[in-house]
Amino acid sequence: MRADAPPLEAVIELFQQAPHSAPALTLYALVSTLELPQSGCLFKLDKLQDLDPAQRQLAYQLMEMMVAGENQTEQWKTAKRRIDTLIRAG
To answer: In this predicted model, what pLDDT tens digit does every residue of 22-52 receive, in sequence order?
Structure first.
C-alpha cells in the first residue's frame, strides 16, 4: 500500500496484495457501510484496532470522503466493484 496513493487506490492495492487479510476485510466492511447512507453508515469502530496506523489513516480518509459525498460517486462505485472482484478471485 503506497502512502501517496489516493484512498480508494490504496484500498485496491491492499486487496491485490492480501484480499482475505484482516485489514483488507475490515476496510471492505468500512467501504461497504459507507456506501449505504440510508443505514447511517454503521461501522463497528472497535474494528479499527485491527488496523495498523497507516491503515487507520486510510480508514479516516475514506470516512472523510463519505463526509464530502464522494461515497456516492462513480469513482467510489467503480472501486467497490473492483474490490468485490478481488475478494471473489481470492
So the answer is: 999 999 999 999 988 777 777 888 999 999 9
6-21 burial, b for 16+ CB within 10 Å, e for fewer?
ebbebbbebbeeebee
Question: What helix, strand, coil percent values describe the chain, rounded to 5?
Answer: 75, 0, 25
Which residues lie closer than 8 Å to 55 by C-beta, 6 or more apart?
1, 14, 23, 26, 27
Those residues with Cβ within 8 angstroms of residue 1's Cβ, 6 or more apart along the chain or in another chain? 10, 13, 14, 17, 54, 55, 58
Alpha carbons 33 and 45: distance in angstroms, whole number:
12
Mean pLDDT taken over the chain: 90
pTM of the model: 0.88
Residue ranges covered by each domain of the chain: 7-34+47-89
